[in-house]
């Protein structure tokens, strides 16, 4: 007579239930990331060029970065996270460049350049 009931494991080879697999609904693609990097870099460059000295360059960069991050937040909420990540990366790089320029000027002159 055949036994129709499943056998219980003996415990000699313990097994666990399979781990769950999580998939991102909106993956970050290389093309979208590159588009965001390019758009963010162009935005930061063009608005940074409005400044005619270090002080106005830094203030324009801060304003442009805040607007770009707001746009990146909207893009993230709409599901285009690749472009949003590219924009955020380019804003971070531009703000870092502005901070380094301020630090160098402040270190060389001893005077805070933003006021």
UniProtKB/TrEMBL annotation:
Region of interest: Disordered: 1-20
Domain of life: Bacteria
Protein name as annotated: DUF4190 domain-containing protein
Keywords: Membrane, Transmembrane, Transmembrane helix
Transmembrane segments: 32-51, 57-76, 83-106
Organism of provenance: Phytohabitans maris
């Amino acid at each position: 007579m055949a036994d129709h009931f499943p056998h219980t494991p003996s415990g000699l080879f313990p097994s666990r239930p399979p781990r769950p697999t999580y998939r991102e609904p909106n993956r970050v693609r290389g093309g979208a990331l590159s588009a965001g990097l390019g758009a963010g870099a162009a935005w930061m460059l063009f608005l940074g060029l409005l400044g005619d000295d270090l002080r106005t360059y830094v203030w324009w960069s801060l304003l442009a970065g805040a607007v770009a991050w707001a746009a990146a937040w909207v893009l993230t909420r709409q599901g285009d996270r690749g472009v949003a990540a590219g924009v955020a990366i380019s804003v971070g790089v531009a703000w870092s460049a502005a901070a380094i320029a301020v630090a160098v000027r402040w270190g060389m002159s001893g005077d805070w350049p933003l006021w």
